[in-house]
Amino acid sequence: MRIRQHVNPLRADFLEIALEPLVLPAGPPVEVELGSADAQFLQERAVEEPRRFYVGVEIRRELVEQANRRCRRMGLSQVHSVFANIAVDLLRLFRPARVARFFVNFPDPWFKQRQRKRRVVNEDLIGQMALLLEAGGEIHVATDIFDIALDAMAALERAEGFGNMREPWSFLRRSPFAARSRRERRCEDLGIKIWRLAYRRQQA
Ligand SMILES: C[S@@+](CC[C@H](N)C(=O)[O-])C[C@H]1O[C@@H](n2cnc3c(N)ncnc32)[C@H](O)[C@@H]1O
Protein backbone atom coordinates (compact mmCIF):
# COMPACT_ATOMS: atom_id res chain seq x y z
CA MET A 1 0.00 0.00 0.00
CA ARG A 2 1.27 3.45 -0.92
CA ILE A 3 1.64 5.83 2.00
CA ARG A 4 2.01 9.53 1.38
CA GLN A 5 4.70 10.63 3.79
CA HIS A 6 4.23 14.37 3.68
CA VAL A 7 1.29 16.67 3.59
CA ASN A 8 2.07 20.26 2.72
CA PRO A 9 0.88 22.12 5.84
CA LEU A 10 0.54 25.36 3.87
CA ARG A 11 -1.97 23.79 1.54
CA ALA A 12 -3.59 21.92 4.41
CA ASP A 13 -4.69 25.26 5.90
CA PHE A 14 -7.48 25.42 3.36
CA LEU A 15 -8.42 21.79 3.22
CA GLU A 16 -11.59 21.07 5.16
CA ILE A 17 -12.25 17.41 5.62
CA ALA A 18 -14.35 16.66 8.66
CA LEU A 19 -17.92 17.71 7.94
CA GLU A 20 -19.69 15.83 10.70
CA PRO A 21 -19.25 16.24 14.46
CA LEU A 22 -17.87 13.11 16.10
CA VAL A 23 -20.39 11.13 18.09
CA LEU A 24 -18.62 10.44 21.36
CA PRO A 25 -19.92 8.22 24.14
CA ALA A 26 -21.44 10.31 26.93
CA GLY A 27 -19.55 10.01 30.17
CA PRO A 28 -15.91 8.96 29.80
CA PRO A 29 -13.24 11.67 29.66
CA VAL A 30 -11.96 12.22 26.13
CA GLU A 31 -8.28 12.53 25.21
CA VAL A 32 -7.29 13.77 21.75
CA GLU A 33 -3.96 13.48 19.94
CA LEU A 34 -3.47 16.00 17.15
CA GLY A 35 -1.42 14.49 14.32
CA SER A 36 -1.80 10.98 15.67
CA ALA A 37 -0.26 9.06 12.72
CA ASP A 38 -0.59 5.33 13.54
CA ALA A 39 -2.19 6.15 16.94
CA GLN A 40 0.34 4.07 18.81
CA PHE A 41 0.39 6.60 21.64
CA LEU A 42 -3.39 6.44 22.06
CA GLN A 43 -3.40 2.64 21.91
CA GLU A 44 -0.90 2.60 24.77
CA ARG A 45 -2.91 5.24 26.68
CA ALA A 46 -5.98 3.02 26.34
CA VAL A 47 -4.08 0.12 27.87
CA GLU A 48 -2.85 2.45 30.64
CA GLU A 49 -6.31 3.96 31.35
CA PRO A 50 -9.02 1.85 29.68
CA ARG A 51 -12.01 3.80 31.00
CA ARG A 52 -11.38 6.85 28.85
CA PHE A 53 -12.12 7.53 25.19
CA TYR A 54 -9.30 8.40 22.78
CA VAL A 55 -9.48 10.26 19.48
CA GLY A 56 -6.61 10.63 17.01
CA VAL A 57 -6.86 13.46 14.49
CA GLU A 58 -4.77 12.73 11.40
CA ILE A 59 -4.62 14.18 7.90
CA ARG A 60 -3.19 11.10 6.18
CA ARG A 61 -6.18 8.95 5.40
CA GLU A 62 -4.17 5.75 4.91
CA LEU A 63 -2.80 6.05 8.44
CA VAL A 64 -6.28 6.67 9.85
CA GLU A 65 -7.63 3.54 8.20
CA GLN A 66 -4.64 1.42 9.27
CA ALA A 67 -4.88 2.69 12.85
CA ASN A 68 -8.60 1.95 13.08
CA ARG A 69 -8.10 -1.56 11.67
CA ARG A 70 -5.35 -2.19 14.21
CA CYS A 71 -7.47 -0.95 17.12
CA ARG A 72 -10.32 -3.26 16.04
CA ARG A 73 -7.90 -6.21 15.92
CA MET A 74 -6.59 -5.29 19.38
CA GLY A 75 -10.12 -4.96 20.78
CA LEU A 76 -9.51 -1.31 21.66
CA SER A 77 -13.01 -0.01 20.99
CA GLN A 78 -12.29 3.16 22.96
CA VAL A 79 -9.64 4.38 20.46
CA HIS A 80 -10.76 6.00 17.22
CA SER A 81 -8.77 7.86 14.58
CA VAL A 82 -10.46 10.43 12.41
CA PHE A 83 -9.41 11.79 9.03
CA ALA A 84 -9.40 15.55 9.62
CA ASN A 85 -7.31 18.68 9.36
CA ILE A 86 -6.15 20.18 12.66
CA ALA A 87 -5.96 23.62 11.04
CA VAL A 88 -9.64 23.93 10.23
CA ASP A 89 -11.76 21.02 11.48
CA LEU A 90 -11.46 20.92 15.27
CA LEU A 91 -14.42 23.12 16.20
CA ARG A 92 -16.65 21.01 13.99
CA LEU A 93 -15.44 17.72 15.42
CA PHE A 94 -15.82 18.33 19.15
CA ARG A 95 -18.40 19.97 21.39
CA PRO A 96 -17.17 22.85 23.60
CA ALA A 97 -15.67 21.78 26.94
CA ARG A 98 -15.79 18.06 25.98
CA VAL A 99 -12.06 17.29 25.86
CA ALA A 100 -10.06 16.42 28.97
CA ARG A 101 -6.62 16.36 27.34
CA PHE A 102 -4.98 17.37 24.12
CA PHE A 103 -1.68 15.84 23.08
CA VAL A 104 0.53 17.32 20.40
CA ASN A 105 3.29 14.75 20.02
CA PHE A 106 6.15 15.65 17.69
CA PRO A 107 4.33 18.07 15.38
CA ASP A 108 5.82 18.26 11.91
CA PRO A 109 8.74 20.69 11.84
CA TRP A 110 8.31 23.67 9.53
CA PHE A 111 11.71 25.20 9.84
CA LYS A 112 11.71 28.30 7.69
CA GLN A 113 11.39 31.60 9.50
CA ARG A 114 8.57 32.77 7.26
CA GLN A 115 6.59 29.67 8.25
CA ARG A 116 6.85 30.43 11.97
CA LYS A 117 3.27 31.61 12.21
CA ARG A 118 2.19 28.34 10.65
CA ARG A 119 3.64 26.21 13.40
CA VAL A 120 1.06 23.82 14.76
CA VAL A 121 0.94 25.13 18.33
CA ASN A 122 0.07 28.75 17.57
CA GLU A 123 -2.42 31.23 19.07
CA ASP A 124 -5.14 29.99 16.75
CA LEU A 125 -4.87 26.38 17.78
CA ILE A 126 -4.52 27.28 21.47
CA GLY A 127 -7.71 29.36 21.23
CA GLN A 128 -9.57 26.41 19.74
CA MET A 129 -8.22 23.99 22.34
CA ALA A 130 -9.27 26.47 25.06
CA LEU A 131 -12.86 26.30 23.80
CA LEU A 132 -12.87 22.52 23.59
CA LEU A 133 -11.17 21.76 26.90
CA GLU A 134 -13.15 21.23 30.06
CA ALA A 135 -12.13 23.31 33.11
CA GLY A 136 -8.98 21.69 34.49
CA GLY A 137 -8.29 20.12 31.07
CA GLU A 138 -4.72 19.79 29.87
CA ILE A 139 -2.52 20.41 26.85
CA HIS A 140 0.63 18.27 26.52
CA VAL A 141 3.24 19.00 23.88
CA ALA A 142 6.34 16.90 23.18
CA THR A 143 8.98 17.58 20.56
CA ASP A 144 12.65 16.92 19.90
CA ILE A 145 13.04 20.32 18.21
CA PHE A 146 13.92 23.05 20.71
CA ASP A 147 12.64 25.93 18.52
CA ILE A 148 9.22 24.32 18.27
CA ALA A 149 9.15 23.70 22.03
CA LEU A 150 10.10 27.30 22.75
CA ASP A 151 7.54 28.71 20.31
CA ALA A 152 4.82 26.53 21.81
CA MET A 153 5.86 27.55 25.31
CA ALA A 154 5.82 31.26 24.47
CA ALA A 155 2.35 30.93 22.93
CA LEU A 156 1.00 28.95 25.88
CA GLU A 157 2.56 31.23 28.51
CA ARG A 158 0.92 34.20 26.76
CA ALA A 159 -2.47 32.50 26.40
CA GLU A 160 -5.12 33.58 28.86
CA GLY A 161 -6.62 30.96 31.15
CA PHE A 162 -3.74 28.44 31.11
CA GLY A 163 -1.20 27.66 33.79
CA ASN A 164 2.10 25.79 33.34
CA MET A 165 1.70 22.48 35.21
CA ARG A 166 5.24 22.68 36.56
CA GLU A 167 6.03 26.38 36.92
CA PRO A 168 6.00 29.30 34.49
CA TRP A 169 8.43 28.93 31.58
CA SER A 170 9.43 25.40 32.64
CA PHE A 171 9.59 22.12 30.80
CA LEU A 172 8.49 18.86 32.43
CA ARG A 173 11.38 16.69 33.52
CA ARG A 174 9.76 13.50 32.27
CA SER A 175 6.54 12.27 30.75
CA PRO A 176 3.75 11.74 33.28
CA PHE A 177 2.47 8.89 31.08
CA ALA A 178 3.69 5.37 30.39
CA ALA A 179 2.40 5.56 26.79
CA ARG A 180 4.87 6.47 24.07
CA SER A 181 4.28 7.56 20.47
CA ARG A 182 6.30 5.86 17.75
CA ARG A 183 8.47 8.97 17.30
CA GLU A 184 8.91 9.36 21.05
CA ARG A 185 10.13 5.79 21.43
CA ARG A 186 12.57 6.27 18.57
CA CYS A 187 13.99 9.43 20.15
CA GLU A 188 14.35 7.68 23.49
CA ASP A 189 16.08 4.69 21.86
CA LEU A 190 18.52 7.03 20.11
CA GLY A 191 19.10 9.15 23.24
CA ILE A 192 17.62 12.28 21.59
CA LYS A 193 16.46 14.96 24.04
CA ILE A 194 12.69 15.45 24.20
CA TRP A 195 11.19 18.77 25.29
CA ARG A 196 7.90 18.38 27.14
CA LEU A 197 5.41 21.06 28.14
CA ALA A 198 2.12 20.72 30.00
CA TYR A 199 -0.50 23.41 30.64
CA ARG A 200 -3.76 23.25 32.57
CA ARG A 201 -6.93 25.13 31.66
CA GLN A 202 -7.90 27.13 34.69
CA GLN A 203 -11.48 27.27 35.99
CA ALA A 204 -13.49 29.94 34.15
C1 LIG B 1 5.93 13.89 12.90
S1 LIG B 1 4.42 13.04 12.84
C2 LIG B 1 4.19 12.55 14.55
C3 LIG B 1 3.20 11.43 14.70
C4 LIG B 1 2.92 10.97 16.14
N1 LIG B 1 2.26 12.01 16.90
C5 LIG B 1 4.20 10.55 16.84
O1 LIG B 1 4.61 11.23 17.80
O2 LIG B 1 4.78 9.51 16.45
C6 LIG B 1 3.21 14.36 12.66
C7 LIG B 1 1.83 13.85 12.20
O3 LIG B 1 0.93 14.97 12.11
C8 LIG B 1 0.13 14.80 10.93
N2 LIG B 1 -0.36 16.13 10.50
C9 LIG B 1 0.38 17.14 9.96
N3 LIG B 1 -0.39 18.21 9.67
C10 LIG B 1 -1.67 17.85 10.04
C11 LIG B 1 -2.94 18.51 9.97
N4 LIG B 1 -3.05 19.75 9.46
N5 LIG B 1 -4.04 17.87 10.44
C12 LIG B 1 -3.93 16.60 10.95
N6 LIG B 1 -2.74 15.92 11.03
C13 LIG B 1 -1.64 16.53 10.58
C14 LIG B 1 1.10 14.15 9.94
O4 LIG B 1 0.41 13.53 8.87
C15 LIG B 1 1.86 13.19 10.84
O5 LIG B 1 1.22 11.93 10.91
Which fold does the CATH topology refer to? Rossmann fold
Largest sheet: 7 strands, mixed
Q: Give a list of the ligands.
A: S-adenosylmethionine
Widest β-sheet, arrangement of strands:
3-2-1-4-5-7-6
The CATH architecture comes to 3-Layer(aba) Sandwich
Structure description:
Helices cover 33% and strands 22% of the residues. α4 packs parallel to α5 (123-132). The chain has a single domain, classed as Vaccinia Virus protein VP39 (Rossmann fold, 3-Layer(aba) Sandwich), CATH 3.40.50. β4 (99-105), α5 and β5 form a beta-alpha-beta unit. By secondary structure, the chain is of the alpha/beta class. It has a seven-stranded mixed β-sheet, with helices on both faces. S-adenosylmethionine is lined by residues 7, 9, 12, 35-37, 57-60, 85-87, 105-108, 181-184.
Topology:
Elements: H1 9-12, E1 30-34, H2 40-48, E2 53-58, H3 61-74, E3 79-83, H4 86-93, E4 99-105, H5 123-132, E5 133-143, H6 146-158, E6 162-164, H7 182-190, E7 195-201
Parallel strand pairs: 1-2, 1-4, 2-3, 4-5
Antiparallel strand pairs: 5-7, 6-7
Helix pairs in contact: 4-5
The structure holds S-adenosylmethionine.
